Structures are given as C-alpha cells and as structure tokens.
C-alpha cells in the first residue's frame, strides 16, 4: 500500500520540502507561539495562564529541535489512538532528522506534535492556535463574499421558484446553464482566495453562454493545466438521469474561511440544482496545516452569517490597531448573507449537508493506505457519486507525495483509490508542492521554461506558488 516511487524529502535541495522545513515551518510555529501568548495574557484564570506558559515553552522547544535538525521524537501519549500509529511509523523509519525526512510524514507529524502539546493540558485541550488567523482572513474577503452571496441568492431562488435557470426554456438549455454554473462554481472553489469574481457574472441565459468565452474566465483557465470538470459534471448528470433517489457528493475539505465559504456555495448549488441529494463534508479533527477546517470553523462561519452586520462591523484587533471602523453593510447585503445563512442552516438541519470527521484525515500516511487502515471510510466513500478532494495537501496524500514522472496517469498515481476502487475521485488543486501527475507529454517542460518555472535547475518551481492548478478525475472503474 505504498508506491515504489520514492517520496519527496526535506533533504532534497531541489524540492519545496527543503525550503518548507527550513523557512516556513519555524515561522508557522512562531505565529502559534504569538497566538498562545496573547490568549495567555488575556486570561484571568491562574491555571489557564500557567498552562499557557508551559504550552509556549513546549512550542519553542519543538521549534528549536526543528531548526537544529534534531531527531523526530515519539509523540507523547495524549490519550488518542493515533499516537501509536505515528510512533510506529517513526520507529520503522529509523534515523529521522528534521532536515532529511520524508516531507509528507514529517509535516503531518509536526501538526500532530503541536496538537499533542495542547491535548496534554487541562484548559487548552480543544484550543485552536490558528483560529484567529482563519477568522481574520475570512473577514478580509468581505467584497468577494458579498458578491458571491448576491449571485448565490439569485441562482438558488431561480431554481427554487422557477425550476429553471437564467430563462432557459428547454431541458437542453437548462442543462447547459447548469453545466456552465457547475464549472464556474467548481473553479471558484478551486481558486479559493485568489478568485476573480467576474467569473460568476451570470445574468441571462445569453450572458451565461458568453461567459465561456469571457476574458476573465479564460485568463485563469489557462493556468488550469488539466481540467476534468466537464467529465465530473457528466458523472453527476448520469447519476441523476439513472433515477437514483439518493445521490451523494463528498467534499474532503481543505481550508476554513473563504475557501469553506465557496465550498458551501458549491454544495448548496449542487443540492438546489438536483445534481446531488446529500453533501458530506469531511473536516479535520485537530488544528492542521494552519488553516484547515475544523467542525468549529463551520459553526463559526454559519454564526457569522446569522448576524452579518455585527460580524462585519465589530472591530477586529487589527482594526483597533489601525484606528479603522468597518463600514456597515447595506440592507441588501445583509439580506443576501442571511439568505445563505437560512439556506445552509436549513440543509444542515434537514440532514442534506452533513459533517463527518475522521482521524484518518490527520494520519501521517498517504491515502494509498485508506482501504487497509480505514476500511469503513473506504466503503463509505464508494457510496458517493463524486468525492471532491480540495487543495494541495489532499493531492499530495492522494499521490503519496511521490516523485512520479509528470506524465504518470492520475488514476495510477493514486494507487488503491484509482482503477477498480469504485471511488469517483475529483481533485481540485492549486499546485503548492512538487508532485504533479497526469500531464500531457512535454507540458512539464513547457511550464518549467516559463519565468520562475524552474528551468533546468532540477526543481519544478512552477508547481510551488499556487499560480497553476490541476483538476483531475478518476472514475474508479476497473
Ligand atoms: O506547499 C506548502 C504547503 O504548506 C504544503 O505543505 C501543503 O501541502 C500545502 O501548502 C497546504 O495547502 P492546502 O491548504 O492547499 O492543502
Ligand atoms: Mg490547507
């Protein structure tokens, strides 16, 4: 259940792993220390403050070990079952120093170690050291959120009251409109924060059609190196036409804040258009890769939308610092956001939108292990019409973060989740790491030759910055 192809390592100077371990991770820990420090200061409870200081000391120790290339030490028993798995793997690896260790495992281990520091306390057990960052980035995406909320209300209301879209008259026109919107929303979902919202200008049926040729859409589409969204849409409509009454779409979530917001936009649209009857969201169970969604992040997002005026006009710490007072929302903006709140809380309450955490998502290994280590979850995913894996880390886990030739077929690189698995996998991924598969012959070389692409340095630098993306489907058939 592991590929033979070697994995990327923090010891390889041509890999983004090298820079990550030496430059990015210490910064991430430092930001965590600052956060805990702030909360410790703000606390009036003696025991909380005492433990907070101890947490800071432990985080500083971890940072020291990382920066001084010490061994990765066993994770202390914090009462959770996954510790044994992590430690077993660590032992099997033998000599594991921070600066020459498989990237995927060591980065997961880093977040699990951080989590164990909190789990061993009394007062900080469920504390999320990244929560502040997550909410503040969501707040700062206000213009995009407002724009999308207005479009969403428009589209979902049309579907609910007129049972059609943008004035489409025939079934074919309706399907065309549905497909274009599906692709738009999935691409917005893909680009997350870096979204050009002119993508979703969809007023009349004619406008919608023109959109396919629109400048904005083309501009970002040319950076999607492989795009299987049309095939994904076909899979959903085929299921719909087969008359199946229960049709599930799963989203293995990535980041909280704006990205979760756009995931919910896609989820709500799939339900409203009848392209799915249930959406299952898979969040993480511990603070993970800084911004990944925890169940609490979902709750907080919904709460923010329940009273958007308060959410957007309460001064954040940064606002206070800069002496800024956020402008109030207009009545229409409040109404648009409340529409989202009502729709999303309703589908959640009615069981059409479900959150299903599993510690598998925060294990140290790749998704190649799924059938073996979490057979229940594997069986569960087979029930789904489409399992959407969001973001870079999920892609690395799908492909085992191995140094595949870029032309390796996607279904092959995802191993047991590929051919014959019965799982319909759709990866929506902006590239922020070395691994890339499923490219046409010559494409990797072509992009390497572009500015900042890495040239003949031996590094695939183009895939590090999030500027490029891949959208890849594996239908799980034999
Ligand atoms: O490449 C930088 C990085 O932190 C990776 O370590 C990780 O895979 C990824 O970014 C996280 O990004 P995302 O939130 O898209 O998974
Ligand atoms: Mg993430």
UniProtKB/TrEMBL annotation:
It is an enzyme of class 3 (hydrolase). Its EC number is 3.1.3.-. The keyword Manganese applies. GO terms for biological process: DNA damage response. Residues 21-446 form the Damage-control phosphatase ARMT1-like metal-binding domain. Pfam families: ARMT1-like_dom (PF01937). The keyword Metal-binding applies. It catalyses: beta-D-fructose 1-phosphate + H2O = D-fructose + phosphate; beta-D-fructose 6-phosphate = dihydroxyacetone + D-glyceraldehyde 3-phosphate. Keywords: Hydrolase, Manganese, Metal-binding. One of its GO terms (molecular function) is phosphatase activity. GO terms for cellular component: nucleus. Its cofactor is Mn(2+); Ni(2+). PANTHER family: DAMAGE-CONTROL PHOSPHATASE ARMT1. Belongs to the damage-control phosphatase family. Sugar phosphate phosphatase III subfamily. Subfamily III proteins have a conserved RTxK motif about 40-50 residues from the C-terminus; the threonine may be replaced by serine or cysteine. Metal-dependent phosphatase that shows phosphatase activity against several substrates, including fructose-1-phosphate and fructose-6-phosphate. Its preference for fructose-1-phosphate, a strong glycating agent that causes DNA damage rather than a canonical yeast metabolite, suggests a damage-control function in hexose phosphate metabolism. This is Sugar phosphate phosphatase.
């Amino acid at each position: 259940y592991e590929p033979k192809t070697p994995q990327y390592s923090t010891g390889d100077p041509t890999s983004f792993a090298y820079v990550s371990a030496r430059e990015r991770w210490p910064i991430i820990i430092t930001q965590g220390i600052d956060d805990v420090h702030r909360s410790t200061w703000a606390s009036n409870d003696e025991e909380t403050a005492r433990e907070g200081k101890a947490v800071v000391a432990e985080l500083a120790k971890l940072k020291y070990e990382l920066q001084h290339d010490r061994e990765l030490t066993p994770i202390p028993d914090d009462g959770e079952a996954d510790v044994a798995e992590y430690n077993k793997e660590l032992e099997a690896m033998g000599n594991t120093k921070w600066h020459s260790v498989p990237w995927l495992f060591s980065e997961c281990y880093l977040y699990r170690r951080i989590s164990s520091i909190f789990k061993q306390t009394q007062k900080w057990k469920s504390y999320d050291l990244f929560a502040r960052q997550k909410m503040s980035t969501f707040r700062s995406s206000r213009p995009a959120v407002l724009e999308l909320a207005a479009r969403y209300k428009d589209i979902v209301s049309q579907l609910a009251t007129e049972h059609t879209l943008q004035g489409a008259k025939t079934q074919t026109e309706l399907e065309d409109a549905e497909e274009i919107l599906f692709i738009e929303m999935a691409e917005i979902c893909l680009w997350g924060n870096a979204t050009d919202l002119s993508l979703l200008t969809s007023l009349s049926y004619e406008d919608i059609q023109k959109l396919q040729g629109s400048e904005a859409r083309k501009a970002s589409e040319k950076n999607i190196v492989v795009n299987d969204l049309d095939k994904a849409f076909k899979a959903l409509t085929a299921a719909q036409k087969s008359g199946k009454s229960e049709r599930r779409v799963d989203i293995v979530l990535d980041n909280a804040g704006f990205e979760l917001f756009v995931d919910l936009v896609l989820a709500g649209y799939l339900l409203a258009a009848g392209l799915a009857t249930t959406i299952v969201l898979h969040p993480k169970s511990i603070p993970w890769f800084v911004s990944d969604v925890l169940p609490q992040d979902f709750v907080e997002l919904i709460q923010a939308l329940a009273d958007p005026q308060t959410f957007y006009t309460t001064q954040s710490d940064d606002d206070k610092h800069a002496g800024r007072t956020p402008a109030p929302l207009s009545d229409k903006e409040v109404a648009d956001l409340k529409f989202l709140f009502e729709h999303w809380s309703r589908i959640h309450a009615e069981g059409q939108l479900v959150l299903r955490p599993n510690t598998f998502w925060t294990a140290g290994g790749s998704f190649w292990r799924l059938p073996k280590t979490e057979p229940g979850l594997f069986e569960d995913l087979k029930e789904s019409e489409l399992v959407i894996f969001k973001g870079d880390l999920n892609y690395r886990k799908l492909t085992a973060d191995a140094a595949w030739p870029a032309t390796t077929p996607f279904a092959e690189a995802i191993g047991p989740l590929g051919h014959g698995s019965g799982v319909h996998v759709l990866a929506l991924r902006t590239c922020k790491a070395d691994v890339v598969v499923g490219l046409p012959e010559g494409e990797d070389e072509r992009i390497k030759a572009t500015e900042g692409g890495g040239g003949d340095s031996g590094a695939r630098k183009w895939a590090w910055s999030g500027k490029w993306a891949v959208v890849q489907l594996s239908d799980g058939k034999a």
